[in-house]
Predict the structure.
Amino acid sequence: MDLKLKDKVALVLAASKGLGMASAEALSAEGAKVVICSRNAEALAVTAAQIQSQTGNPVLAFAADVSDAAQVKALIQKTVDTFGGIDIMVNNGGGPPFDKFEAFDDTQWQHAFELTLFAFARTGRYVLPYMKSAGGGRIINIISASVKSVLNNAVLSTATRMAIVGMAKLMADELGPYHITVNNIAPGLILTERVKEVLPKDIDLDQALKDRAKTIPAGRIGKPEELGALVAYLASEQAAYISGTTIQIDGGAGRGIF
Ligand SMILES: NC(=O)c1ccc[n+]([C@@H]2O[C@H](COP(=O)([O-])OP(=O)(O)OC[C@H]3O[C@@H](n4cnc5c(N)ncnc54)[C@H](OP(=O)(O)O)[C@@H]3O)[C@@H](O)[C@H]2O)c1
């Protein structure tokens, strides 16, 4: 299926590795002109060069912290100056830490709010004028399956990302007339550096992965490229009638019905 992404301009946040990188790879493979950001400029440049050499399509790296308004404004300006607009934005960021409710103080709550919720709202607001003037657009927020099914120690993730579920519904409502869709992707366990960091360290990685996979109906942990494929589809012309949704990608692990 031709997703009709050739020459679309896609901004993918927090994309030097992991789910952001997989999203950028998938969009670039479909012919989009991609801009990626993350804080470490060196790692980001390596990723951009790698994707560009794989796909033959332009990938621009611009170092920015997604929770810093001035840096995000500069990133968006650079994207527009280089490629002439923005058609697709994949909102992503580093995830909040895991621990029990009582372990987090005001500073940690504030940081989670800034990174996991407020940054998503701000970038959405910043890209909208470009999408409206292009006659349409796609906003895809990478959140977490913790909004569908309670995950131990994920209180910061669940509390802030539940707000994104509501925000996306309202944005879909207001932006439908402009042909802009807004959707959330809620990943379960997908094998990235972040996941490797949170697995138990007292057993080897393969065993830890096998143990975690026992509760996943698919019998394994997800691959970043599987999430990338979903991003590419939601970004496509064919997905024009999907908006305001939160789609799980979790190998069937979520126990909730809705
Ligand atoms: N993987 C999963 O199974 C899973 C499941 C549920 C939810 N999620 C969520 O999905 C998101 C991505 O996770 P991941 O597994 O891909 O993580 P990852 O492998 O650790 O990658 C995180 C990426 O985000 C960048 N980043 C982090 N903080 C940033 C910031 N403030 N500004 C700009 N870039 C930033 C990192 O680069 P720099 O450090 O250089 O900035 C890196 O490129 C997280 O929010 C996570 O909570 C992941």
Notes: Residues 106-134 form the longest helix (29 residues). The chain has one domain: 9-190+225-249. The chain is about 45% helix and 15% strand.
